[in-house]
Amino acid sequence: MATSIAFRISRAGAPGWLSAPYRLLIRTSLFLALAAGFSIGLYLVVGFALGVPMAASTPALIQVHGQVQALGFVALFIMAVGVQLFPRFHSNRLEQPAQVSLGGLLLALGIVLRLVGQPLLPPAPLRPAIVVGSGVLELVGVLLAVQAFAKVVRGGVQPAPGGWRALLPATMATSLLLALLLNLYACLQLADGPLVVPFAQDEALTHLQLWGFASSMVLAVSGRIYPRFLLLRPTRDGLLKIALSMWAVGSLGLPIVWLTAAEVPLLRAAAALAQLLGAALFVVGLRLYEPPVRQSGMPHVTTPTRRWARAAYALLLAACAADFGAALAEASGVPISVTQLSAARHLLAQGFLMTVIIYMAARILPGYSGYMMHKPRLLAGLVWTVLVGAVLRGGAELTGGYAPGWGGVVALGGTLGVAAFVVFAVGLWRTTSQAPGS
Question: What is this structure's pTM?
């Protein structure tokens, strides 16, 4: 289906606004994040913290919130940034920008349908068609964009990565495809009447999206950009080879365990340990925490970015450790709450992914990077607000959840993250029109 749609686009031509995917998709991702992802998340976290009576559809809203953030914001944002990065990395132009735009819009439409359809209490008459249409549109939209990007990679002057260097791309691609197929299967299940996807299946889906795809993408970009940009010492390739192998085992192994042996926490602990060791060996192999090879000619740019990268990766390690600790505790007979399980996800999403998105956008995205170059205090404030919020939220969820006293800390951490993102989104929205080819 994706190939047929792509052929029709190339034959018929496309409107001019579809030929500028960067601006279109950046703004679409920000709109979905603000209008649905972060707003629903803030409603949920504050409501739970204050003990406000919640609607009957709240369990569905929790899952919808996760899907809006994972696909509607993070995946769509990565798609938009890919319009800028893939041609640079591979010294090849994007021949079909309209196809990327269409793919992103189909993905966004699928997210909107999921947002509307899943919270409808069964047996709403249109609910089955809406949720199934959501899964189909998300799958087709991503495949369209991936097909356009694949042509950039295949036609580039640099050879495709081989050997152990292909581990991250393979982990990303496998995780993304499995996530899309599992998401479609979940939509088919929802069409039969349940309000929510089974818990273990939802955990597997979220892990594929946030760890296997999004975090692997960040690791790939870090390995490509950080050594030169942050003036790191030469990488230890032997350690990176082991790190990426273990990261792949954790990224794919944990979802498999959730789907096939969720009642065996020891297996989850083993997969989570592989992910933790992979992340730890990656930062050691990248030499992120070692002194730089020399002083930067632009210390006001390089030095704070190195500091933020170290803090973000520390929270990645904390997220991996929280995942491992929860599984190990459960294997030891210690009861684990759903809130404690979600702590790892929030440490990853807010503390790692959102932090990296903000400071890397301020350094490499056209328009926004020039804008933030003159606002170093604002950038530092945004990054540290997100990091502090993630520590407060993740730490409180691990320690006390929404128990009296702890719920307020969880809500404060989440609110700090939302506030920082709103400021970031407004600045990025205003400056995307300044980007070349936007």
Answer: 0.93
